[in-house]
Design goal:
Elements lengths: L3 E6 L20 E5 L8 H11 L5 E6 L1 H12 L4 E7 L9 H21 L1 H8 L12 H12 L3 H12 L5 H6 L4 E6 L7 H10 L4 E5 L6 H4 L1 H16 L1
Organism: Rhodoferax saidenbachensis
Protein name: Pimeloyl-ACP methyl ester carboxylesterase
Pfam families: Abhydrolase_6
């Protein structure tokens, strides 16, 4: 492959720290660029900001968690700029109505309240417990890397991003419209965005490839960077071919 810009979209309270473990395992021609959403408080505003700041007119696009949802909004706004898309550990449905939706909002607001009263780091130490493969909870280096990444973001950013997620649109139509090489990927033990959810996405986008990363939870790119990068390398090669 020639030189190819790879636009990388982090998830909720995440930054380049999610993606950096992959860099040394990516194909030589892939040039990563990680987006920052600033204080954007809607997924569509995040996508518009990425389109404004992306360093190339056309690019490969990968999004992790909330970043996957931003990727789908970007495809809604400017599909002609995306050569291929990878959606990692993510989802496509809007916030549920009724009791389920109220429960999600309450859980997110409770985390925000901990961040406001005890600090982002204290919130992150609780939140991270469900984000990695259970066997990795004793991996001090990994856990610190995830917690430190969350702690680099402010409570104000957390509030804006929660607002965006609670108002997330249904992206089923974006998945159905996909014509570029598409990768759906998640950790086998991702309890936030489980493999079954990605299988549903593949039903909507039947040409997509589904890769499940063994021995990994929601933070698969940080937990199993070699396996995640190998999957991305295969996807990047699809375009070259």
């Amino acid at each position: 492959m020639g030189v190819q810009t790879l636009v990388l979209l982090p998830g909720l309270m995440c930054d380049a720290g999610v993606w950096e473990p992959l860099y040394s395992h990516l194909p030589a021609g892939a040039t990563p660029w990680v987006a920052d959403y600033g204080m954007a408080n809607s997924l569509s505003a995040m996508a518009a900001r990425v389109l404004q700041q992306a360093p190339a007119d056309r690019f490969a696009l990968a999004g992790h968690s909330m970043g996957g949802r931003v990727a789908m909004e970007l495809l809604r706004q400017a599909p002609q700029r995306v050569t291929q898309v990878a959606l990692l550990d993510t989802g496509y449905l809007p916030c549920a109505t009724g009791e389920a939706g109220s429960q999600e909002a309450a859980k997110r607001q409770a985390l925000l309240e901990v961040a406001r009263t005890q600090g982002v780091r204290a919130m992150a130490q609780t939140w991270v417990q469900g984000m990695v493969h259970p066997d990795r909870l004793q991996d001090a280096a990994l856990m610190e890397a995830v917690v430190a990444m969350f702690a680099r973001k402010s409570t104000e950013v957390f509030a804006a991003q929660i607002e965006a997620l609670l108002a997330r649109p249904d992206a089923s139509d974006v998945l159905r419209a996909l014509t570029v090489p598409t990768l759906l990927q998640c950790g086998a033990q991702d309890s936030w965005s489980p493999p079954a959810q990605h299988a549903e996405m593949q039903v909507l986008a039947p040409r997509a490839v589904l890769d499940v990363i063994s021995q990994a939870g929601h933070m698969a790119p940080m937990e199993r960077p070699h396996a995640v990068a190998a999957s991305l390398a295969r996807w990047l090669a699809d375009m070259a071919a």
